[in-house]
Amino acid sequence: xxxxxxxxxxxxxxxxxxxxxxxxxxxxxxxxxxxxxxxxxxxxxxxxxxxxxxxxxxxxxxxxxxxxxxxxxxxxxxxxxxxxxxxxxxxxxxxxxxxxxxxxxxxxxxxxxxxxxxxxxxxxxxxxxxxxxxxxxxxxxxxxxxxxxxxxxxxxxxxxxxxxxxxxxxxxxxxxxxxxxxxxxxxxxxxxxxxxxxxxxxxxxxxxxxxxxxxxxxxxxxxxxxxxxxxxxxxxxxxxxxxxxxxxxxxxxxxxxxxxxxxxxxxxxxxxxxxxxxxxxxxxxxxxxxxxxxxxxxxxxxxxxxxxxxxxxxxxxxxxxxxxxxxxxxxxxxxxxxxxxxxxxxxxxxxxxxxxxxxxxxxxxxxxx
Length: 369
Known about the structure:
The chain has helices at residues 3-39, 44-60, 62-72, 75-92, 99-124, 130-136, 138-152, 157-172, 193-213, 222-246, 248-265, 270-280, 283-294, 299-318, 327-347.
């Protein structure tokens, strides 16, 4: 094994740690909320407020945290602190009077970890979707595990212990730098960056709304729920790999178009729904890396903006304002998102996939490259 290959292997293992911790953070937050529902700490009248407060803090404040990380340059520290803070929220949630405090702590901890880990993953391979796809993918698995465990009334302390240990390991290990030559794309003209970002965030919002509002009644069966969760994880991971191999626009827009008929049939067909969800989620790392590419000096802020768009897209469903997504509305929204993604990525001039070359070996202490 060459020196570059050895370094790449070590960096990959460290990035794997961040991905695993991402799943643990989302699992801890989900088990906190759903265990409270199981224990009667929140009832129908207060559950909405608790879930809304959590999502608001976990996603909507990420741009502010991202700006702080961009300025201070401590992404690894933010990720480790976020994991520890989230772990600390779990024992707080067992006390009825402290449940609201626990929700606030968990939301802020989640936001800290996501932006910190996202910046580390982006800085490891600038201009690449692969590392970002692998970082975000385990979140869906963690979320599903936390929901199932919380609803079943399982103890929360294993989640807290596991997450705290992962956060301590992140704090102890240097963040990896694995920079890929040829990965940088020409940026759009300065006067058009705002338009590019808005187009890409619109796509993120549509994907979030569709993922929340799409009616899949068969997912109440455990085996199908597991398959659906696996589809989300695999889709996000493969989306980054394929985007770097074949081009962002080919995979991003192609995935939206191909997934449309499958999702439209998904309500009555588990096979079509699972395949559609897998392909639909392949767009996620594409939009994420593209927003970061459009704002290269503000990686944390860019990552946070995509999470704010996720919250904006999910908000109508979280607030109970949106009915189940009809096939017609799905086609209209996804079609509009495909057009927006085509033009947004076109402004980034993403024609050729980058070639891999390891060119840096110095460990990243914190902020974005």
